[in-house]
Structures are given as structure tokens and as C-alpha cells.
Amino acid sequence: MLDFSLVTEFIPFLLKASLMTLELSIVSIILGLLLGLVAALMKISTIKPLVWLADLYIWVIRGTPMLVQLFLVYFGLPQFGIELGPFTSAVIALGINSGAYIAEIYRGGMLSIPKGQTEAAQSLGMNYGTIMKRIILPQAFRVSIPALGNQAISMLKDSSLASLVTVSELMMVSQRFAATNYAFFEFYIVAALLYLLLTTIFSFVLNKIEYRLSVSDH
User: Fold this and answer.
1) pLDDT tens across 73-131, in order?
2) CA-to-CA distance for 174 and 8, rounded, in angstroms?
3) pTM score, two decimals?
4) How far apart are the first and last CA of the chain?
5) Are 86 and 162 in contact (CB under 8 A)?
6) pLDDT tens sequence across 206-218
7) What domains does the chain contain, in order, with CATH numbers?
8) Which segments constitute the ABC transmembrane type-1 domain (predicted)?
9) What burial letters (b/e) apply to 44-79, b meaning 16+ CB within 10 Å?
């Protein structure tokens, strides 16, 4: 028989672990947004080496499992004298992984902007940097919001992999308590509900942002 009363006394610890999951996800997403923007700008560049480098980054990251990337950062880098803590390693691995997907989202958003706007800006004497900053990127960001939201939610769920490098996030804490209390189903159900709550909050916030941006366009 299921006994969820076993979980009750551990709820504060699970909530604390949920905050760690949220923190890990947000920092990783921010890193992914920055890396994705750089990679997207490199990919639409007219400088071939930058395009090739961006293509290589996206190809390698999207073509290999995130778990392998996480292990390379946490277990592999120490072989070269680079030792990072579990949280930092997880942020770097998750950020690099999401950056490859976000780069393609950004690129699609940039390419969706009519070329006529760029030509009009050039005729007014704007340089490339000004055009990107004031015209292309703001519009591309608005167009990309739904896809970026989906990527953020995926990142939050994928953050559970950080438990494999001893980050005390929701999944690891749930596993530890489930094993010590022999209540695997109960703890994993509660963990699933907490993940569902976090993704729902993410969705709500992102929908609000998308709505505000759509209103501002009118």
C-alpha cells in the first residue's frame, strides 16, 4: 500500500531542493541565451571561419547526449587541471547544451525579419551593429519567445541530470529520501508534482511576457 505520510516530514527538504533546481535552471538558461546569441550572430556572419565554428558547436552539442557533456565537464576537465564544483559544472554543461538549440531559435527569428528593414536602415546610414541592436534583435526576440519558452521548460526538466554529479537538486534529494525510506513511488510522485509546479510557473511567466510583448506591438 502507498503511504504518502512518509513524505510529509521531508516536504521542507524537497521544497528547498526545488529552489536549487529553479536556481540551477535559471542560471543555465541565462548562460544558454548568451551563448545562443553569440552562436546565432556567428552563424549569420559573412566571415566564414565564424560560420564554421558556430556550425561545429551546434552540430557537436546537438548530436551528443547531454549526460555525456555533463560528465565531460565534471569528470573530464579535472584531467587537464580544471576542477569545478558540481553546481558550476552542471550550469556550464546545461548552458552549453541549451545554447546550441537557442542559437537556431535566434537564427530563425533573425531570418524572419524582412530584408527590407535592413536595407532601409542602411539607407539611413546605420551600421551593422546599430541595425542588429535596434531593429533586428528586438523583433527576433519577440518572434522567438514561444520557442525560447519551450527550451526553458525543457532545461528545467533536464536539470534533473545534475543529480548524477551530486548537485542537491530535487531529483537527487528525492532519490536519497526514497532509498532511505523504501518509498520510491511516493517520493517520485511528489517530485513529479513539484516539477510540474515549476514548469507551470515557468509557462505562466513566459505567457505573461509573450502577452506583454504582443500588446506593445499594437
Assistant:
1) 999 999 999 999 999 999 999 999 999 999 999 999 988 888 888 888 888 888 888 88
2) 12
3) 0.90
4) 56
5) yes
6) 888 878 877 656 5
7) 5-217 (1.10.3720.10)
8) 18-206
9) eeeeeebeeebeebbeebeeeebeebbbebbeeeee
